[in-house]
Amino acid sequence: MTPHAPGQPERTPAAPAVNPSETPSASEALARFASTRGPFYATILAVFCCVFLISNIGATKVIGFGPIVTDGGAFLFPVAYILGDIISEVYGFRAARRAVLTGFAMQILATAVFFLVQISPAGPGYENQAAFEATLGFYPRIVLASITGYLVGQLLNSWVLVRVKRAMGEKHLWVRLLTSTGVGEAADTLIFCTVAFAGVIPGWDFLNYVITGFVYKVAVEVILMPVTYRVITMVKRREPTYGEETV
Q: NCBIfam families recorded for this chain (predicted)?
C-alpha cells in the first residue's frame, strides 16, 4: 500500500466501472426460475407427454353435444396447456421448450408404431382390422395437425408467459396465464382444426368447431386457474433451486 503524505486524508480506491449491459434490469432480477434438476420437473414432463398422447388418440373421434361440435381430445388436451404454463412459470422457456420437443418426439414414435401395427397382417382369429383402420388409420392426419398446432401453440404459450413474467416479475400471475393461453390456444386451435378436419367437417359446422374449441379450452384454463395457482405455488415452495435464475 502506497503511503500517503502527512496531513493529507487517506484516499479510498475507486470502485471498478460497471458495464450497464452486464447489469440485469429490475424486471429480469424479479424473474425467478428453478433448475430442471429439481424433484418435480421430470414428473411434470412425464404427465405432460402422456396427456398429449392420450388427447391425440381421443381426437380421432368427432363428438357433438347438441349444436356444439368438438373432438374427443377436448376432454384432456386443455390440461396440456395448464401443465405447459406450470413448466414455463416455474422452470423458464428452455425447460418448456424441452418439454414441448420431448412430447413431439413421443408423438412421432407413437405414430410410427400405430402405422406399423396397421399395415402388419392380421393374425388368426383377429377380425377387427377394419375397425382398427377406421379409428387409428385416421391417426396420421390427426398427428400432423396436432404436432403442428402443438409446436406453434405451446412454444408461443411459453414464450409469451416468460416474456410477461420478465416484464412484471412474480406479481399478477393470472395476467400471464390468461395472456399466454389466449395466444397459444388461438394458434393451436386454428392450425389443428384446419389441418385435421378441413373438408371433413362441412361449412358452418367447421367454423363452429374452431370457435367452440378455442372458447372451451380458454374456459377450462379459467375454471381451473385456482388449481393452477395452487400447483405453481406448491412447486415453487418445494423446488430448492427456485430463485434468481433467469433461464
A: queuosine precursor transporter
First to last CA, the chain: 42
Sign of CA dihedral 112, 47, 186, 62: positive
Global pTM reads 0.77
Domain residue ranges of the chain, discontinuous segments joined by +: 29-120+129-234
Cα gap 91→48, rounded to integer Å: 14
Contact (Cβ atoms closer than 8 angstroms) between residue 206 and residue 193: yes
Q: For 18-52, what is each residue's pLDDT tens digit?
A: 343 334 444 444 678 999 998 999 999 999 999 98
Q: 243 is written with which cell numbers? A: 430463485
Which of 218, 161, 160 is CA-nearest to residue 185? 218
Residue located via cell numbers 500500500 = 1
Copy the grid coordinates of residue 198.
Answer: 378441413
Which of these, 76, 101, 100, 103, lies nearest to 88 by C-alpha position?
100
Q: What is the CATH number of domain 29-120+129-234?
A: 1.10.1760
Question: Is residue 104 a contact partner of residue 150, using CB atoms and an 8 Å limit?
Answer: yes
